[in-house]
Amino acid sequence: MMTLFARVQPRWQGRLLGLRGALVIAISFLLIGMGATTGLSWTRPSEAGRFYQSSSTTGLPAVVPGSFADLAARLAPAVVNIKVTKVEKVGAEIPAQPNGPFGEDSPFGPFFDRFFKKMPRGEFRSQGAGSGFIISPDGYILTNNHVVDEAKEVTVTLASKDEYTAKVVGRDPKTDLAILKIHPKSSLQPVPFGDSDQLRVGDWVLAIGNPFGLNNTVTAGIVSAKGRVIGAGPYDDFIQTDTSINPGNSGGPLFNMHGEVVGINTAIVARGQGIGFAIPINIAKPLIPQIETKGEVTRWWLGVSIQHITPELQKSMYLPDRSGALVADVVKGSPAEKAGVQRGDVIVAFNDQAVSDAETLPAMVAEAPINKEVTLTVQRNQQKETLGLTVGKMPSGEVAQAVGEESSRARWGLAVQNLTPKAAEQLGVPIDAGVLVAGVREGSPADLAGIRQGDLIQEVNRRKVASVSDMQTAIAQSNDKDSLLLLVKRGGTSLFAALEAK
């Protein structure tokens, strides 16, 4: 299996390399890396009288594509360089073995003692780089979550070369957003928000970031497509662009020709050229106040597992078309169960808004009004029914999501979710014991390998996984892109299962 999509990860450097080695690594990153940029103009909602303020395009003529020089000069000061330090453990403790792993009197015993038992162990500090941009005059900065994830130290360098220690005030892994805070010597100039919904395929866009640590690099391109689903999370809705983005661009802004931030470049196609993806700024706008003030995003949920309607399902269920989200399961005690939603229902509308497919429903639920009843229209037995329910606060780890997908989100046919405290208690395992299988698509590689709903995946390619994020990383870093080796716990036994891509 080939890993099609990858996030632009920071460049980690654990040892001094020669020039040739550095060039090889740089070229490798260029081939497999991922980039991300974000941008928006925002004023803190936590202070009286402050509010979001998107600039009007009235009176701001679009820049002629013949030159981006004036636009780049005006916007570059709002883009920052982010350096991240994280501490990683190296070396694993070798279990005590009287005669080593090779048995008594083995000629390999001295070799084992010399080269393994005496290997250095402990912690080492590694560094990475990313981008970000100023969203408020008092020093709030937007970037990607994966840039600062697990960071011990974060340093922000402004275009003026001033350096500041930054604090991570909040993160939202599901949309790959994070907010930093610095205390600048003077007021900063943020950039304005645009309206990503108004972008058209073919529009010019501009990216500014720090690819490979090359500060304030400007690249330009066009919007290639909108509404792309690449399997990065439950709220996929990416802008596709051919604007060049590379490792180190993560967290920087994507601008329209009026100088407004319209996207956050987040992903590229591994080994591809001119195919990048940006988070629409309209997705980020409503989340920023929560991330800043609460440190996280509170989402609302129905408590259902949903899937796409295939042509085969449409035929067997006598559905008029393939629109809507098919309910594969209903969580006990959830708002959906209380409202009467049943397995096999097709959700065709949420609060009078049409649900085109399984990808559109999560975003609708996330934006639902708090503590107010909404309507859910379902198709059941060739009849439509309208149900009333109040969406609830999403418990941690309850969102089931497909992993390891390509654009179809179905390469392995496997949906997983993080263990909740309740689920871990029921299974009699620690909370970090693995990843719970929430669903398996019939006829998929997972199904053919015998994976079942309720299985606990403990390892992926001999690598322990404690979360959905761990599993996605393990799949992305797999050497063999056409197969997966899973260690699965089922009941009181564990077994290996080999998945082969079709």
List keywords for this structure.
Pdz3 Domain, 502 residues, 3 domains, Thrombin, subunit H, seven-stranded antiparallel beta sheet, alpha+beta
- Low-confidence regions: 10-54, 92-104, 397-409
List the strand order in the largest sheet: 6-5-2-3-4-8-7
User: How many beta-strand runs?
Assistant: 29
Q: How many separate domains make up the residues?
A: 3
Question: What is the makeup of the main sheet?
Answer: 7 strands, antiparallel
What portion of the residues fall into strands of 2 or more residues? Answer: 25-35%
Report how far the terminal alpha carbons are from each other: 9 Å
Which bin fits the share of residues in helices?
10-25%
CATH topology title of the largest domain: Thrombin, subunit H
- The pLDDT mean sits at 76
Over the alpha carbons, how many angstroms does the gyration radius reach? 24 Å
CATH class type of the largest domain:
Mainly Beta
Helix tally equals 12
Overall morphology: globular
Class inferred from helices and paired strands: alpha+beta
So, CATH architecture of the largest domain? Beta Barrel
Secondary-structure map:
Blueprint: E1 5-7, H1 19-32, H2 69-75, E2 79-90, H3 109-117, E3 122-134, E4 140-143, H4 145-148, E5 153-157, E6 163-165, E7 167-172, E8 177-181, E9 204-209, E10 217-228, E11 238-241, E12 253-255, E13 261-269, E14 276-280, H5 281-284, H6 288-294, E15 300-301, E16 304-307, H7 311-316, E17 325-330, H8 335-339, E18 346-350, E19 353-354, H9 361-366, E20 373-380, E21 383-390, E22 392-393, E23 401-402, E24 414-418, H10 421-427, E25 435-440, H11 445-448, E26 456-460, E27 463-464, H12 468-476, E28 483-490, E29 493-500
